[in-house]
Amino acid sequence: MKGTFKIFFFIIIFFFILWIDIPESIKDKYNIPKSINIFGFKKEIKTSLGLDLKGGSHLVFDIDTKNIKKEDLNDAIESARDIIEKRVNFFGISEPTVQTLKTGQNYRIVVDLPGIKDVNEAIKLIGKTAQLVFMEEKIINEKDATPTATFIPTELTGKDIKKASVIFSQQDGKPEVALLFNDKGAKLFAEITKRNIKKPLAIVIDNQIITAPIVQQEITDGNAVITGNFNVDDAKKLAISINSGALPVNVKLIEQKDIGPSLGEIEVKKSVYAGIVGLIAVLVFMILYYGKLGIIASLALIIYGAISLAIFKLIPVTLTLPGVAGFILSIGMAVDSNILIFERIKEELRKGKDLEIAIKLGFGRAIDAIKDANITTLTVAFILFNPANWEFLPQFGMVRGFALTLAIGVATSLFTGVVITKKLIELFYKSKK
Predict the structure, then answer these.
(1) Which of 79, 204, 281, 349 is least crowded, fewest Cβ atoms below 10 Å from its Cβ?
(2) Domain carrying residue 375
(3) Total domain count for the chain?
(4) Residue among 285, 129, 265, 113 at smallest CA distance from 207
(5) pLDDT digits (tens, 9 = 90+) for 107-137
(6) Does the global pTM surpass 0.85?
(7) What's residue 243's pLDDT?
(8) 185, 332: one domain
């Protein structure tokens, strides 16, 4: 009964991995579900491609820290990074990466925008220091025959806005920007509208008056609407600027690399081709050199590849060219484990040991060398990934992509080399008895 349950469990896992690994194009063609939906948990399963494979733009912004106090520096940089990330996300870019780097005394923010079409618009939006202010009218020279009016800032600013969103007018269907204030903002807005009834209240962004509607009544519910001659894109950009607020530091674009999707597609094909050729070469070598054991190792290697790809999609791991290289390198590590085991088995057989005993001794004596080799590689991958962002270690996304896929591949190869290969050999040996 226990053995039957194990077999049933492994069959379920096998088909689950197989479903994950099916390419998205085939799933679309045959209407195969592309997401997990269990007990309200929903996750889309897809292959995530990085900037160099999908195409897009790599932007580097230099941060001006001259006017920032030393004790406020880290908070200002992290705040700027968070705001830029929020702006990028509002722009609707798929799987962007935003990270901070320090080179010497210079601080920078690196932004990767895979799949973006209008990079110039994104650059404007990312570096924008938009600040919204509400201004009320003040009459000057009241005693003159022709008094003039000007607008003066109130205490109400974009920091008091909880959310800005695009809506459409019920009267004419034109796009508008709805504002929802926080508690402090709602209170201030109520006071401002109360004292400005029948007077204009200007909404100013970057010292430009966006609109100056006449206040009809006191507004106490913390909601306001910005109207103007907007199209949908203008309204969306305005909402993004308001939502993301003002950058605490000035940033300047110092580097831009654009990669076309056609170049990325070519590199994907080359990478897949190289991976297939390498895998076939390894499989042929294992089968020719080790015979039946090589066939078992080849089967374990295919299982290793399926498990690794499933992990990449589940996490998900954003695949870049260095990431693909890390995965291909880990294939060699997977083969290395099998070679160590098989050579130890062959040594025991040459000593005249029974096959069953030789297999047990071979695995037992090879495991220490396998663990040492894999732990060393995992340590190097950890250093390259640099999770703590140490300045003296690499901080670039491409290097981290290589380290991550290498680490996943090595960990998976350790599992398949020791567990899967052993089970397959035992299964094969028992079937021959």
Answers:
(1) 281
(2) 260-432
(3) 4
(4) 129
(5) 999 888 887 767 777 777 676 655 678 899 8
(6) no
(7) 67
(8) no
